[in-house]
Amino acid sequence: MKQQTLLAISALMFSSSVLANGGFEPNKKECVNVGKEITRVSTEMDVAKSGIQKSWLKRQLSALETKRTSCSTKGFQANSTELAKL
């Protein structure tokens, strides 16, 4: 019974952490794409006129920053050569 309870609790903790991160698993390609997406969203936010659109873009940018932090925590960071391709 204790094993089942511990297994259920650990499965719940794992699934909630994955859901909190949107199911994002850092790898080299995904992390480069996060950098590209941050650039795109930042540019779009600069030209957005609607307050609702700016608010939505801010939330999107915040989620992307969280992904970028996850990338750097896992050791995946875009180097200057990859950023130059943007």
Using the CA coordinates, give the radius of gyration. 17 Å
Oligomer: single chain
Q: Give the distance, in angstroms, between the N- and C-terminal Cα atoms.
A: 54 Å
Q: In percent terms, what proportion of residues is strand?
A: under 5%
The count of DSSP E runs of length 2 or more, i.e. the number of strands, is: 0
Q: What letter string, H or E per element, gives the SSE order?
A: HHHH
Tally of helical runs: 4
Helical proportion?
Answer: over 70%
Main sheet summary: none
pLDDT under 50 segments (min length 5)?
14-19, 80-86
Q: What is the approximate shape?
A: flat
Q: What does the average pLDDT come to?
A: 74
The secondary structure category is mainly alpha
Task: Walk me through the topology.
Layout: H1 2-20, H2 28-47, H3 51-73, H4 80-84
Helix pairs in contact: 2-3
Keywords: Signal
Signal peptide: 1-20
Protein name: DUF3718 domain-containing protein
Q: What is this entry, summarized?
A:
The protein is mostly helical and 86 residues long. Helices cover 78% and strands 0% of the residues.
Polypeptide structure, described:
The structure is a single chain. By secondary structure, the protein is mainly alpha-helical. The protein has a domain at 25-84. It has helices spanning 2-20, 28-47, 51-73, 80-84. α2 packs antiparallel against α3. The chain starts with a helix and ends with a helix. Keywords: Signal. This is DUF3718 domain-containing protein. Residues 1-20 form the signal peptide. It comes from Alteromonas gracilis.
